[in-house]
Amino acid sequence: MKKIWWKEAVAYQIYPRSFMDANGDGIGDIQGVIQKLDYIQELGIDVIWICPIFESPNDDNGYDISDYKDIMADFGTMEDFEELLAKVHQRGMKLILDLVINHTSDEHPWFIESRSSKDNPYRDYYIWHPGKNGEEPNNWESIFGGSAWEYDEHTAEYYMHVFSKKQPDLNWENEEVRKELYKMINWWLDKGIDGFRVDAISHIKKTPGFPDLPNPKKKKYVPSFKGHMNRRGIQTFLTELKNETFSKYDIMTVGEANGVTVEEADEWVGEENGTFNMIFQFEHLGLWGKSASGRIDIDALKRILTKWQKSLDGVGWNALFLENHDQPRSVSTWGNDEQLREESAKALATLYFFMQGTPFIYQGQEIGMTNVRFDRIEDYNDVAIKNLYENEREEGKSHDEIMPVIWKNGRDNSRTPMQWNDSNQAGFTTGTPWLKVNPNYNEINVEKELQDPNSVYHYYKEMIRLRKQEDVLIYGSYDLILESDESIYAYTRTLGDETMLVIVNLFPEETTFQLPETIDSANALLRLANYPVEKGEDMRSFVLQPYEARVYQIR
Ligand code: TEU
Ligand code: CA
């Protein structure tokens, strides 16, 4: 067992626009993050991942970068950034940035050059194509809706955008593009940052020739993952990326890798061969509402998470997460955000946090923040939500039909301002926030959570402390138990003769837990629980309350 810092770390994700506004303009900023570093450290965090802070016209809130080497004016200056980095390091924490290299903004100087003429030296920095019979070059749909191609009148060709039309895709086939990106990456690494979360990296390789995709339903555009997600040949790019940049530094890299399968784990995250230290895989995210009962499909959840746990053991490393800035809040989606909010927030936390991998906590998750429901589309900001609304209206759907979809799945659910206290605007800003605060901030806020020893916050803090105390929770092997139980997700972690047992009731009804015969309970010690547990209770068989979670140490 080789000890590695990023395996032992717990990471905290900041969406800077919504974290803390220090100057009252309604937008979170770098000075705001600096103000809250004590809070983050106190929780027990080792690594902070901050979403893009680079110059950007904010079509996709910073994921559309117009200058990789400058800080977005809304967030502050390069001096503010350097102060942040220094203060994070002073506290013994690390800072990783978001690396967005599948695309830039259409306002990036490269794209401005590229679109200016067909023979401009930057033309091939992006993906240009003539139309087909007066229409788009093919039927690929953008991930944010509509065609993945945008017509540009000036040169009468189309450019590709897998995301919004203000996010033209870079042409990774062009060696000059790659070299420019590597220079930029090393420039940041030389500043002393501790690594990157690498955005949408499984999309950089496109199917050569850009063929139409099968369209049995005769739709105008078809989901285009088969055209640009984890395509053959991507590894050539990724290996070069790693060799030219990451491999020269002691850093942490997390690839956002939708579409990567566990069979490809070695290439992506293998200890020797992998491009990244770990990846965010997406397979478990779509499971809510998929079972016949409309509840979480616990069988599929067990199958998917166990597959990743077992396949990566000794091969590579997992990034563990329930939430991020693209997903609705976990307690609203997978738990119960009303009567059982605290119980279910803690249960979900217990479920993912003690698996093998580096846990990520998304801002607000540690206080059990919930989804939001705004009635008016004007109160939403996300480009994906707006595109969806517009496209559905065009197809004849009514406002009342569309809004429930946004309430359930919209990305702004997790982007409402961080709820610090019960003062005006939840203490996030003294001005008018760029996105409305969730009206439940009187009930759910950091100040209240800090005061209540039984809060979700204190549970997270306790989980982090426990994980740091016990190597078995970091390096131990994972094994699923009670495989076919329909309510309980339970697993063990084992390292040498140490075993930890994690038990989670994933549903709002009581259920009975029965310890398998193979596990010795003689010296079992309760290390964590989200309900009071009676002393001397027989741990071989007991009733689990709604969303009850327990962690035992077996000696
Ligand atoms: O998200 C990428 C992303 O959305 C895809 O990787 C994924 O395939 C898709 O969700 C499938 O439904 C990242 C950022 O996290 C997101 O905020 C940005 O909008 C996006 O990239 C574009 O940069
Ligand atoms: Ca501000």
UniProtKB/TrEMBL annotation:
EC number from the UniProt entry: 3.2.1.1
CDD domains, per the entry: AmyAc_SI_OligoGlu_DGase (cd11333)
Alphabetically ordered keywords of this record: Carbohydrate metabolism, Glycosidase, Hydrolase
Domain (Glycosyl hydrolase family 13 catalytic): residue spans on this chain: 13-415
GO biological process assignments: oligosaccharide catabolic process
Catalytic reactions on record: Endohydrolysis of (1->4)-alpha-D-glucosidic linkages in polysaccharides containing three or more (1->4)-alpha-linked D-glucose units
InterPro entries xref list: Alpha_amylase, GH, GH13_cat_dom, Glyco_hydro_b, Malt_amylase-like_C, O16G_dom_2
Keyword Transcription regulation appears in the UniProt entry: no
Pfam families hit by this protein: Alpha-amylase (PF00128), Malt_amylase_C (PF16657)
First-level EC class: hydrolase
Cellular component aspect of the GO annotation: cytoplasm
Keyword rRNA-binding in annotation: no
Gene Ontology MF: a single term: alpha-amylase activity
Compartments reported by the entry: Cytoplasm
Entry similarity comment: Belongs to the glycosyl hydrolase 13 family.
Entries under NCBIfam families matching the protein: PRK10933.1
PANTHER family: ALPHA-AMYLASE FAMILY MEMBER, OLIGO-1,6-GLUCOSIDASE 3-RELATED
Protein name according to UniProt: Alpha-amylase
